[in-house]
Automatic annotation (TrEMBL), chains A, B:
Keywords: Hydrolase
Keyword Protease listed: no
Listed Gene3D superfamilies: Zn-dependent exopeptidases
Superkingdom of the organism of origin: Bacteria
The protein, known as: N-formylglutamate amidohydrolase
Organism this protein belongs to: Paragemmobacter aquarius
Keyword Lyase: no
Signal sequence segment: none
Amino acid sequence: MEQRFAPVIENEAAKGRVVLVCEHASNAFPAPWGDLGLSEAARQAHIAWDPGALGLARGLMSRLDAVLIHAPASRLIYDCNRAPDMPGAMPARSEVYDVPGNIAVSPEERRARTEAVYLPFHDALHGLLMRRLAAGLRPVMVTIHSFTPVYFGKARAVEFGVIHDADPALAVAIRDAAARMTRMNAQLNAPYSAADDVTHSLRVNATPYGLPNAMLEIRNDLIADAAAQEAMAALLAPVINMGVAEIQKQAKAS
Amino acid sequence: MEQRFAPVIENEAAKGRVVLVCEHASNAFPAPWGDLGLSEAARQAHIAWDPGALGLARGLMSRLDAVLIHAPASRLIYDCNRAPDMPGAMPARSEVYDVPGNIAVSPEERRARTEAVYLPFHDALHGLLMRRLAAGLRPVMVTIHSFTPVYFGKARAVEFGVIHDADPALAVAIRDAAARMTRMNAQLNAPYSAADDVTHSLRVNATPYGLPNAMLEIRNDLIADAAAQEAMAALLAPVINMGVAEIQKQAKAS
């Protein structure tokens, strides 16, 4: 039997509606893939994971009484926020870095990584959402990401990006709440958008079920250590709560 | 551990691109649910399953060298073509029949049926599609259904309905091919359409991945026995092939 890398689920009995998803939580490079020929610096860089995202997600989890699911291995082995046929699922190059172990991925190897990493992640996330939906606790899906402050040599001014797939309601409500409640540079669909194929998890797990959803992107220099991640969680938990309250108000009014 | 009712997969090593899905193949009422208080007549009627659909699907499977996945229990226990929060997932009434065992489904029971029937079906279908997508055999998803010739006392003239979700390309191509190659009354989005929430399987498994997809509905008096199902498979296999060829032509031209 092939090895399967199950995602980690925390606080599964949570009473809150929010389901937090962290596809890029880890920069682990387990066997049989190993380091894909990357240097130590590359394995620590934003191409391998979203630095700070897991710590922030855990801070949000406890404040929102949310359930949290996160990936157990580097996105460079398989990026769980990409479909198996997307180049970005196992990229041969990411920003300014080559990924030697991904330069010639055979169809068999692509299938094996899909089986080992993507399917267990997706099945667990989907099951989590569906069990809650069935039991009447309609989930709100929020994915937690971080982005690099400098990309291809260019500095990014945005600090907090809120990205939506087909239904913009929750993303707009969270961005508006951030504008009212924080001094962060908060922007909709920045530093990228669904057009860049970054909303795969939302598109597969929330959109078809009509579940409220949004993708949150925090600039990683703002969540560089545990203290900063806690502070950011304390700042953003009320922002997310206000966003969810706003769409509940809209749903009642319609 | 809770019981899980895995779907049946046939011809998994198929070389063809088509993945056939039959959510309403079975009128089995296994324990722990049993007959839900239905009469023998009701358990044989179209409310419990799609009569003839599985025989037709198997005939198509061999002619198209397609893989086939079908549900192992009646749609009245859990309708795998409905999300867990839809009333139709475990309907208390279907056409002119009451379903006693579904009149008061508790949240716990709804969750248990979702876990036992919907999740195994969905995980298996999704896995089937993703493994093929990863290996470069881009799937074409076709669901096979039958409908009753008389509904709420009214006769239906349509014989072959082709229903689409967000992407109409394959459905239109198959309907057009049927019009050219057969004398059937073939209609688009009849006897119902995505607006009636009948395209759940397509919406979850094909639409988010951009996979070509269509839902085929055959009037069940035309596939009432094994010979008729074989004859219909012989008629429709070239129609489906022509539809798939047409969208491949369109994809190359664009």
